[in-house]
Amino acid sequence: MNLSIIIPAFNEEESIKPLVNLIFKNLDKNLEDFEIILIDDGSNDKTWDEIVKISNKFENIVSIKLLENYGKSDALDAGFKVCKGNYVLTMDADLQDDPSEILPLYSMIIENKYDLVSGWKKKRNDPLTKTIPSKFFNLVTRLFSGIKLNDFNCGIKIYRKEVINSINLYGEMHRYIPLIAKWNGFNKIAEKEVNHNRRKYGVTKFGMERYIRGFLDLLSVSFVYRFRKRPMHFFGSFGVLSFLLGFISAGFIIYEKISKLSQNVPLELIRPVTDQPLFYIALLAIIIGVQLFLVGFLSELIIQINSDKKGYKIEKTGNAQKK
């Protein structure tokens, strides 16, 4: 199988049929071996009925129904688990992603041997309430990740199969696949300007809350993928810093009292150590530091125990043989 096209859909009953027809129109004479995977993400309209009708009409369509609306990431993950293509393309079901872009993206990833090619909706046909927050979100993600993409959230992307096999999606993680791919060792990432159509049917399923969830997921995925192999570097660093600050502060308070005693200052004029708020802050910092260090140490032990489950990316060349 050359290409798998994965399309998650939620309440898109009017868009499914024309979308699939456009895909076949663009691919039938140019690409023989491909499949379309339609995923109904718990729709409460007639989206599933339309998917069933189309699946009965064409042989190379796989249909999946999720019992609840789990979200785009989970719907894509369901498609990733069953796809058979050497290359995997994802696109939205609302007809805003143009099927005429499939072949150019497919040719681009093959000819240039990219790991991932992301679409860029440079001329976006959406209201300002979506475009302005999206630009800010993309700017923050670009600065945070170091990946020079203009549109992380573009629905149409194409990947090598090895890329999607290396990731697990949940929450709002679908927008961070380029970031996750890079941290998994797939560095050949490119971007292509794509056509973006106006929505013809239905309404958008995303509100402003997706940017809040998306930002929280950015922090989550950044932490997990940066420190999953070396948690002591994160917890241990903050633990040692907290412990040292607390220890130095407590030492200063004790030194100050001993110094006054050595200068024969009357005991009743010396403020007790336990009456000073700084002493309790220092004590708390020491306790937190020890706890953070122990969390890092225990995390390292867990990683060592599971070290035989490492999923390295290995490419064989020449006469390399599996032993």
Task: Lay out the secondary structure.
Layout: E1 3-9, H1 16-27, E2 34-41, H2 47-57, E3 61-66, H3 72-82, E4 87-90, H4 102-111, E5 116-120, H5 128-145, E6 157-160, H6 161-165, H7 177-183, E7 189-193, H8 209-227, H9 231-262, H10 277-305
Parallel strand pairs: 1-2, 1-4, 2-3, 5-7
Antiparallel strand pairs: 4-6, 5-6
Helix pairs in contact: 5-8, 9-10
Task: Describe this entry's structure for a reader.
- With 323 residues, the protein is an alpha/beta fold.
- It has two domains: 3-227, Spore Coat Polysaccharide Biosynthesis Protein SpsA, Chain A (Alpha-Beta Complex), CATH 3.90.550; 231-307.
- Helices cover 48% and strands 12% of the residues.
- The protein contains ten helices and seven strands.
- It has helices at 16-27, 47-57, 72-82, 102-111, 128-145, 161-165, 177-183, 209-227, 231-262, 277-305; strands spanning 3-9, 34-41, 61-66, 87-90, 116-120, 157-160, 189-193.
- The chain has a seven-stranded mixed sheet with strand order 3-2-1-4-6-5-7, sandwiched between helices.
- Helix 5 (128-145) runs parallel beside helix 8 and helix 9 (231-262) runs antiparallel to helix 10 (277-305).
- The longest helix is centred in the C-terminal third of the chain and has 32 residues, at 231-262.
- The protein is elongated.
- The protein starts with a strand and ends in an 18-residue tail after the last helix.
- Mean pLDDT is 83; it is low at 309-323.
